[in-house]
Design a protein that fits this description.
Blueprint (H helix, E strand, L loop, with lengths): L1 H4 L16 H12 L4 E2 L6 E2 L2 H12 L4 E2 L6 E2 L2 H12 L4 E2 L6 E2 L2 H12 L4 E2 L6 E2 L2 H12 L4 E2 L6 E2 L2 H12 L4 E2 L6 E2 L2 H12 L4 E2 L6 E2 L2 H12 L4
Antiparallel strand pairs: 1-2, 3-4, 5-6, 7-8, 9-10, 11-12, 13-14
């Protein structure tokens, strides 16, 4: 009821978005102004809200206060835990109106819709290249600037993306949290486990567009396709 009553008073003049409170409206306005008054004392990165800064600090400390009751996996953000729980429940609340396919996350649905529309909303101002996925666009921008904002606290090595840093950390800890249910072999990265499982299942999801030959790994099919194109990068 407060949201409806204060709607007009807490509306953004720039985009018209309504916020629950004046403080929430102030934080929202920073998305337009670019103001980032809260800075990380470790890396200097700025944020529009204290909450975002707190979440960011966990990338340095490795803190993951939210744990899954089913499998014990931990997360740095509560929203990530809520999405993860759907893996166990099988819930897929976001459905495509065109083909009916369902997804765990709203962002996954938004990405999927682009397959039907061909839309590529993210453009690089440097080279003009367009992308359908935000994270691919973000990674591409760093290729121009060579920015590597995620650093390993142990060896100092820097990376373009946070998830790559997470994978790198396992090389120091020796941790192999992902185990194959069939043979028991363990892996430091989930992607390696997924690739390994195909040895048992015989699945070959990646096909050559020229000859149709199937492969279990994307990297392998890309290498194979060069036998047709003659490319030698």
């Amino acid at each position: 009821m407060k949201t409806h009553a204060d709607g007009k008073r807490n509306s953004c003049e720039t985009c018209g978005k309504t916020c629950v409170s004046q403080s929430a409206l102030l934080i929202h306005k920073r998305t337009h102004t670019g103001e980032k008054p809260y800075c990380c004392e470790t890396c200097g990165k700025g944020f529009g809200s204290q909450k975002d800064l707190l979440i960011h600090k966990r990338t340095h400390t490795g803190e993951k206060p939210y744990s899954c009751e089913t499998c014990g996996k931990s997360f740095s953000q509560q929203s990530h835990l809520l999405v993860h729980r759907r893996i166990h429940s099988g819930e897929k609340p976001y459905s495509c109106e065109i083909c009916g396919k369902s997804f765990i996350q709203r962002s996954s649905l938004s990405t999927h819709v682009g397959v039907h529309t061909g839309e590529k909303p993210f453009s690089c101002e440097t080279c003009g290249k367009s992308f359908r996925l935000w994270h691919v666009w973000s990674r591409h921008l760093r290729a121009h600037t060579d920015e590597k904002p995620f650093s390993c606290e142990i060896c100092g090595k820097s990376f373009h993306e946070w998830h790559v840093l997470l994978r790198h950390r396992t090389t120091h800890s020796g941790e192999k949290p992902y185990s194959c249910e069939t043979c028991g072999k363990s892996f430091g990265q989930r992607s390696h486990l997924l690739s390994h499982r195909r040895i048992h299942s015989g699945e070959k999801p990646y096909s050559c567009v020229t000859c149709g030959k199937g492969f279990s790994r994307k990297k392998t099919v890309l290498n194979h396709m060069r036998t047709h194109t003659g490319e030698k990068p």
